[in-house]
Amino acid sequence: MNRPLSVKVTLLFMLANCLTWFILAILIILNAHPALPDQPVILWMMALLSLAAACVFLILSLLIYRRNQTGYYLALAALVLTALLIFFDDVGVSDLIVLMVALIPVGLLVRDRAWYLRTTNG
After folding, report:
1. Residue 37 within any structural domain of the chain
2. Which site from 30, 62, 66, 122 is most exposed, i.e. has the minimal number of CB atoms within 10 Å?
3. Could you tell me the sign of the dihedral formed by the alpha carbons of 61, 66, 70, 72, in that order?
4. Does the residue 43 lie in any domain?
5. How many CB atoms lie within 10 A of CB 73?
C-alpha cells in the first residue's frame, strides 16, 4: 500500500505525541519537572497517566498505519482532547509546542480522511 507523504508525516507526529507523553512520564518519575506537586501519590498518578497516554498514542499510531477506520476517529478524538487539555494549565512555550504537535496531525488527518476511510477489498 502506497502511503502519501502527508500520511507519513501524520504518523511521525503521532509518534511524536507518544514520545512527548513518555518523556513527561520520565520527567515526573525523576522529579525533574519544574512544576510538580509534593504529594507522591499525585506524582505517581501523573506518571502513570502520562505512560498510559504514551501507550494510547502508540496504539493509535499502529491503527492509523494499518488504515483502521476506528483508529482514525479515535486518533482524531485523542489529539483534539490533548489540545483542549493544554488550556487547563498555564500556557507557556512548551505547552504551545505540544499544542502544535497535537493540532498539526489533526489537520493532516482531516485533509487525508478519504485515504484513511477508503475501504480496501482483498
Report:
1. yes
2. 122
3. positive
4. yes
5. 16
Closest CA to 66 of 13, 102, 115, 6: 115
Cell of 117: 476511510
The answer to whether residue 122 sits within a structural domain is no
Q: What span, in angstroms and rounded, lies between the C-alpha atoms of 12 and 101?
A: 10
More confident residue, 102 or 35: 102
Q: Can you spell out the DSSP letters for 46-98?
A: HHHHHHHHHHHHHHHHHHHHTT-HHHHHHHHHHHHHHHHHHTTS---HHHHHH
Which pLDDT score is estimated for 20? 94
Is 55 among the domain residues?
yes
Q: Which domain holds residue 83?
A: 5-117
Q: How open is the CA angle 83-106-71, to the nearest 5 degrees? A: 105
